[in-house]
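Narrative of activities, Objective 1.

The group set out to show that a structural description can be obtained from nothing but a protein's sequence at a throughput compatible with the screening campaign. Below is one input-output pair from the validation batch, recorded exactly as produced.
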Amino acid sequence: MPDEIPEPTLEQLQAKARRLALFVVMMTPSDRWAEAEPGARGAVLREHLLWQQRLERTGVLLLAGPLDADLTPGRGMAVVRAESREAAVALAETEPFARAGLRDNEVRAWTVNEGSITLTVRLFDDHGTLR
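Output recorded for this entry:
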């Protein structure tokens, strides 16, 4: 068929890769997590949420949230923008649960090549959705 579009080569596919450099902070409860009083964890949670809010407002935090919270309370993940791995590690060290010794944070570099994000903003309703 003359109108057939040829399949792209490996090189063509790789050339289209986005190569967006991000960092993933894997947050794992430390041994001290279970020993901490729930009230003390609640106070640190408030500071953690404020920390995330600041990072979100400054464009550093892309995504964050708990991982298997019902199976492992205190476990979470954050995807952040940083100039280098060292900068991402320094940022992860400021996370309130890590500062309190209640979490061990591990930073991993993540190169995003493909995916899809849909953003809907309704200005009149002051409403937005991300899918």
